[in-house]
Amino acid sequence: MQTVSLGKTDIQLSAIVMGTWQAGRSMWADIDDAQTRQAVQDAFEAGITTFDTATVYGNGHSERIVGGALAHCRSEVVIATKVFSNRLRRDQVMAACEQSLRDLGTDYIDLYQIHWPPGSFGAETVPLSEPLEAMERLQAQGKIRAIGVSNFSRNQLAEAHRICPISSLQPPYSLFWRHHEAETMDFCRENNITVLAYSPMAQGLLTGKFGPEHRFAPGDHRAKNRLFQAPLYDRVQEALARLRPVAERLAVSPGQLALAWVVAHKNTCAIAGARNPEQVRQNAGAGDLVLDEAVMAELDRIGRVVTDHLDDDPVPWHF
Question: Which helix (H) or strand (E) holds 282?
């Protein structure tokens, strides 16, 4: 498993990070806690040492699943969690962190992140200095080790980085969703900010398992992902048809190829969710893949079948 340094810290992240949005159960269908807990443990056994969660994933349910599953190996893993946009006043951040510590069953969080910028989803628009100053206080107390942000624009990221050292950015980033390249990639590279790319398999699309007629179960938020909606979905299917032969030629799965493409970018990890041991093994295997320049160029052309037809809105969903 390749590793990536977290910003300017001495924290090492596994190139493949296990994402645990699905562990919260809210906005997903057919999630089984025991199966999820086992998948987290299997991920650690497969060489994934970094796990990403958030308070809003089931109102702490995901954090409790993750913390319980990793209690036996806490000192060997990196746990990242996030505070949502409706709790960004100074005292709210402090309280949210304490709740996350309890739910995770730990006395420190390796990476604490602002999940969405102030004002997102109708939340109060507070000065960005408020949550970041609270995070610096938590860091001084030893309750968090590093500070990150998620879903920030370039201007928001630059403002945050002026207030305090930002170690990471979480943007949606995949072969089929590449706003990060134009918006924030250069800033992250110039300022040694590590990228934790979420939805690197486009919420399962890049595994190739969703055919032209797929319909999601009621309650599954992926139905609101713009890539699953016409007319983009037809272009997605066209790109997948071109991607499969490349994966076959390299003797890997399409999902592994998609993850390897993401982590091939400098100082970038891929956050990949999993529900069962087979998905865990597939994801972890991508952490060892190295793609040459010719393959990267080929994948770039395939991805643009979709991305050349996206608008400028960086949010993948229409909730």
Answer: helix 277-285
34 pLDDT band (50/70/90 cuts)? confident
Domain at 85, CATH number: 3.20.20.100
- Letter for the amino acid at 116? W
pTM, two decimal places: 0.92
Q: Is 89 part of any domain? A: yes
Which of the four pLDDT bands, split at 50, 70 and 90, describes residue 150? very high
27 backbone dihedrals φ, ψ, rounded to 5°: 75, 10
* Residue with token string 């979709």: 306
Residue 72 lies in a domain: yes
Find the largest Cα–Cα distance for the chain: 54
Give CA–CA dist 233/29, Å, rounded: 21
- Quick one: pLDDT at residue 27? 63
Asked whether residue 297 is assigned to any structural domain, the reply reads: no
Q: Which of 152, 77, 72, 151 is nearest to 108 (CA)?
A: 77
Supply the residues annotated as catalytic: 57
How far is Cα of residue 308 from the mean position of the Cα atoms in its chain?
A: 23
Q: Which residues of 266-293 are buried (b: 16+ CB within 10 A; e: fewer)?
A: ebbbbbbbbbebebbebbbbbbebebee
